[in-house]
Amino acid sequence: MTAPQRTAAAGTSGGAGPARQGGQPHGQTATAGRSLDLVLLAIAVSGVSLSAPLIASTAAPALAIAFWRNAMAVGVLTPVALWRHRSELRSIGRRALAMSVLAGLVLALHFGLWLPSLNMTSVATSTALVTTTPIWTTLILRARGHRPPGMVWAGTALAVVGVVLLTGIDLSTDTRALAGDALALGAGMAAAGYVLLGAEVRRTASTTAYTYVCYGTTAVALLAVCLVSGSALGGWDGRTWLKIAALTVAAQLLGHSLINRVVRGLGPSTTSTAILLETPGAALVAAVWLGQRPPVAAYPALAVILAGLALVVLADRRKAS
Question: Of 295, 283, 254, 307, which is closest to residue 77 (Cα–Cα)?
């Protein structure tokens, strides 16, 4: 059982016996909570699937978009965080605070590496490399002493194969393309660190407190990068700002925030594997919204990714039982 799962189990059980919460047996409560987490995870994946089509249709620099989606999210969260979570923010432990800040820096690193890679190598290759996140998540968990079941390894590999089936991967010998490939791979590693740090912080901190500190840190870091690189932060028309606002709501508040919410109960392996569904999800959204016909491989790739995710979820459920 992973650390987040142990915490979730401890949080729903009062002892070794058949503890009850709200008049329901512990087993039923845990099953209901996991089912809710899976529903929220599906909503989160749907939210982040809107990210690529929105960014593609937004006439603004990519890093500026990344900054504003985090800054706007902080603006939305501020009233809630200061009204309902003020005491928690004041008393948050040094370790939780430090790890939340670190998660924000790692998330900024993910954006800072991946978005430039899209202009250096092919979009297909960049997408395939950045979605190696669950591989790095599983390897990091193994290095920390966890022993992921064989089904987790098999499910992770199958899900990644599904993404490669959809996007393809065409490694080039061109120096610039190779640099872009390296950036995309680094972004995938950074995403794994972000998920794992979030799982750790969420053992003791609420979703709102954690995301507030994390997004705030990400926004400050990306603002610094934009200022240093000379990336424009404004001067766009109303439609551009509207799309950035939509991106904030869909990909940041519903996407990343719900991922931060469910990672405590579902664990980092299931959560990071599910994020792979963003790739076929974005293709289907682009087909409906932008009129871009999805590739022939979109539907079988979706089935392969879902099969891999099912293996990971089943393995985590067996381990938790």
Answer: 254
- In sequence order, the 6+-apart residues with CB closer than 8 A to the CB of 141 are 2, 148, 196, 268, 269
Dihedral of the CA atoms 8, 13, 18, 23 (nearest 10)? Answer: -100
Residue at 108: amino acid letter:
A
- Of 262, 247, 212, which is closest to residue 103 (Cα–Cα)? 212
Look over the chain and give the mean of its residue pLDDT values, rounded to a whole number. Answer: 83
pLDDT at 287 over 80: no
pLDDT digits (tens, 9 = 90+) for 52-86: 778 777 889 989 999 999 999 999 999 999 999 99
Answer positive or negative: Cα dihedral of 265, 212, 112, 166: positive
Q: What is the pLDDT of residue 220?
A: 98
Angle between helices 94-117 and 62-84 (to 10 degrees): 160
Reference 94, options 85, 86, 104, 102; nearest CA is 102
Q: How far apart are CA 107 and CA 114, in angstroms?
A: 11
Q: Measured between alpha carbons, how far apart are the two ends of the chain, in Å?
A: 9
Mean pLDDT comparison of 44-48, 81-85, 210-214, 284-288, highest-scoring range? 210-214
CA 285 to CA 280: how far, in whole Å?
9
Residue boundaries of the structural domains of the chain: 41-320
Q: What is the pTM of this model?
A: 0.78
Does the pLDDT value for residue 101 go beyond 90? Answer: yes
